[in-house]
Design brief:
Blueprint (H helix, E strand, L loop, with lengths): L2 E4 L2 E3 L11 E6 L7 E6 L5 H15 L7 E9 L7 E5 L1 E5 H10 L4 H8 L7 E5 L15 E6 L1 E5 H6 L7 E3 L2 E3 L3 E6 L4 E2 L11 E2 H13 L5 H6 L6 H4 L10 E2 L1 H6 L2 E2 L7 E3 L10 E2 L37 H9 L11 H14 L10
Parallel strand pairs: 4-5, 5-13, 8-17, 14-15
Antiparallel strand pairs: 1-2, 1-6, 3-4, 6-13, 7-10, 8-9, 11-12, 16-18, 18-19
């Protein structure tokens, strides 16, 4: 599942990148048990860009105690005229029962306990879905309906590694073997590679964008993007299997009333919740085609909700926030520092939204 940046907006699309493996470099944190990255740099990737990826990986390594190594091919290339960067993540399908057992065994925080306790019982789950060929309101209808009996989920291999699941080998574009993701930055835009002194006017935060793209590979993806991009083409049984671990915590007022998570592509508000939809957390984007214009694998736009916000402007510093940490914790990453309880995480979301509003100059129409 890929991520794509379009200046000044960050957009995730359903596509794959094609890059060639180059020099390998290992990044590991100082902790004995921690996430590490094996970055393979495409020939021609500048020293500054290589260090930028290493610095972005270090941000995530500093947060998680999971003793796993992620293999990523990274580099720069000529991309579309409106694309800053794009990412492809290797993913796999597992049974819901397998995922639920893995999440249960991986609990390390109070938030984990709450999240697991509120997962649908049994070996299957229902979803609120729309735009399927078998929609009872008419083929391809935008009207949501509950589709029950889903037994399969889709997750990135990086997320699977964090949960101790076998991932085997595979490919992402030209990246093969144990590769988990490939990330390519455009060579047509100006980037600031040192966020420590702020981001210069007219330049994009390279380390922040790389951090965002790695976040998608870690598992911040949504099957709602599959529905948004395949409206009226497939039955619910096909589309609902793209439910991701993050989607198990994706709700709306309507889906909460129905006792299921929300996988629809439409403009209704969607939000993150680890207690079955009772507590309304940070909002999600709702779809580039049928939703709010931003792909669903992001927080709601322009609210300062975290690194997985869908837009970025020149001169803007991008940083990991409390909502990002809580989401990663819920899907199976083990935080070194605990995150808030359900009673307080909504306050974090509201607080960040209040103080994090940013002007985005020159936004594309």
């Amino acid at each position: 599942m890929p991520g794509r940046f379009a200046p000044p907006e960050i957009v995730v699309n359903i596509c794959r990148t094609h890059v060639a493996a180059g020099l390998a470099l290992m990044l590991a944190s100082g902790a004995s048990q921690a996430l590490s990255f094996n970055f393979s740099f495409v020939a021609g990737t500048s020293t500054a860009a290589q260090q930028g990826f290493i610095d972005a990986g270090a941000r995530w390594s500093a947060l998680f105690s999971d003793a796993v190594t992620l293999d990523m091919t990274v580099g720069t290339s000529a991309l579309g005229t409106s694309i800053l960067a794009e990412t492809g993540s290797r993913d796999l399908f597992v049974s819901y029962s397998t995922l639920k057992t893995a999440l249960n065994n991986d609990r390390t925080t109070a938030a984990d306990n709450t999240a697991v306790a509120n997962l649908p019982a049994g070996s299957s789950f229902g979803v609120l879905i729309n735009r399927t060929t078998d929609n009872p309101n008419g083929s391809g209808s935008a009207t949501p309906f509950v589709s029950s009996g889903s037994t399969t989920v889709n997750l990135t291999t990086a997320n699977a590694k964090a949960l101790g699941l076998a991932v085997g080998t595979g490919s992402v574009g030209a990246c093969t073997g144990t590769c988990d993701a490939s990330i390519v930055f455009s060579n047509s835009f100006s980037f600031d590679y040192n966020p420590n002194d702020g981001i210069a006017a007219g330049q994009y935060d390279f380390v922040g964008i790389a951090t965002h793209e790695i976040g998608h590979a870690l598992g911040f993806i949504s099957g709602a993007d599959i529905i948004d991009g395949n409206a009226g083409l497939f039955p619910a049984s096909t589309l609902r299997q793209y439910t991701t671990p993050l989607d198990l915590f994706r709700y709306s007022t309507l889906s909460k009333q129905s006792g299921v998570n929300d996988l629809t592509a439409d403009t209704r508000a969607k939000y993150f919740s680890i207690d079955g939809g009772t507590t309304v957390g940070a909002g999600f984007s709702t779809g580039s085609t049928f939703g709010d214009g931003q792909q669903a694998s992001h927080w709601k736009d322009n609210l300062g909700l975290g690194i997985m916000d869908p837009t970025a402007a020149t001169g803007e510093l991008l940083q990991i926030g409390a909502n990002d940490k809580l989401a990663m914790d819920a899907i199976g990453w083990n935080l070194i520092t605990a995150v808030p309880e359900p009673s307080t995480y909504a306050l974090f979301a509201a607080g960040l939204a209040a103080i994090g509003l940013r002007r985005r100059a020159g936004r594309a129409a």
